[in-house]
Amino acid sequence: MTPHQVGHKPISRWPKRLSNELTGSSKPQRSYRMTKDRLGRGLGALLGEYLEPEEGLAETRRIPLSAIVPNPLQPRRVFDESELEQLSSSIRENGLLQPIVVRPAPGALDQFELVVGERRLRAVTRLDWEDVPVVVREATDETLLVLALVENLQREALNPLEEAEGYVVLREKFELTDATIARAVGKDRSTVSNIIRLLGLPLSVRKLLEEGVLRQGHARALLSLEDPVQAGEMARRAAKEGWSVRDLERRVARGGRKLKRQGKNKTPVVRALEEALEDKLMTRVEVRDRRGGKGTIEIKYHSPEDFERLFEIVTGRSVGTVVG
Asked: What's the maximum distance between 2 C-alpha atoms anywhere in the chain?
């Protein structure tokens, strides 16, 4: 399938509301909170106004594939080859249903920088297309990174370290606070801060996390170890011996000593639920299932700031709004 050529169209601009979200404008704003579903209804809905523009609101044009350069601020480094091949086959059969979004490349004539649609672009390059449908828009570097982060977060495509590195660029290059970053990507401030902390882990631990051998919960447990050699050794043992997040937390608390048998009466279902809660809350959770369908859920916190973080996640409100 060879796309047909259409004429050049004018460049449209980004809606101002995204800039308001980033800069903390005093204009009325919507509240964007955690979880994929909430992100879809909050910031995702806002992004949809220009990432998936309605017919007639934005003009599509075709440009040569050779004129598109990668997004230099793309946080995602790992792409699944089988998924790209499937997407390429789908585009070959059905065409590119959603245009790629680009911006004029700074300082380069007739060159365009990818803004949104990295997977689609990679898939299209596997076909015999010479050009591709795009929407050309102006965007700052700051907006470029936020859009790339949000697009990947919505697809759950970033590993924790890629996500953390994206936040660090927003923090250091663009001097955004964690609260502003959180508002822009639809997460709580404390969640953003804790994800960034993962970059302080030793390289050997980060490698296991990036490869998916260790979960984010394992990495958080290792943050309390000051000795990088010990942290690396514990990470390797956790990966080799298949420790759960809870197993690793207990070993860390005991300085690496062998665990006593605990929770032997817990069913696999209860343990799975505990781990799901721990992944969500980023702390240790104890579920005690008793007779008659009753039980308790114990949530650990390690500092006043950690309590505030957990309170925000559970209630959707800050401690200050409750206790004044």
From this structure: 72
From 21, 113, 118, 163, active-site residue? 118
User: Which pTM was predicted?
Assistant: 0.51
- Both tokens of 62, joined, read 């075709």
Tokens 């990088």 belong to residue: 228
Active site residue 113: no
Three-class SS of the chain: CCCCCCCCCCCEECCHHHHHHHHCCCCCCCCCCCCHHHHHHCHHHHHHHHHCCCECCECCEEEEHHHEECCCCCCCCCCCHHHHHHHHHHHHHHCCCCCEEEEECCCCCCCEEEEECHHHHHHHCCCCCCEEEEEEEECCHHHHHHHHHHHHHHCCCCCHHHHHHHHHHHHHCCCCCHHHHHHHHCCCHHHHHHHHHHHHCCHHHHHHHHCCCCCHHHHHHHCCCCCHHHHHHHHHHHHHHCCCHHHHHHHHHCCCCCCCCCCCCCCHHHHHHHHHHHHHHCCCEEEEECHHHCEEEEECCCCHHHHHHHHHHHHCCCHHHHHC
Angle between helical axes of 141-154 and 160-172 (0-180°, round to 10): 160
Q: Please write the tens of the pLDDT for every residue from 150-207.
A: 766 656 667 888 888 888 887 887 787 888 888 777 778 888 888 899 999 999 999 9
Phi, psi of 222 (to 5 degrees): -80, -15
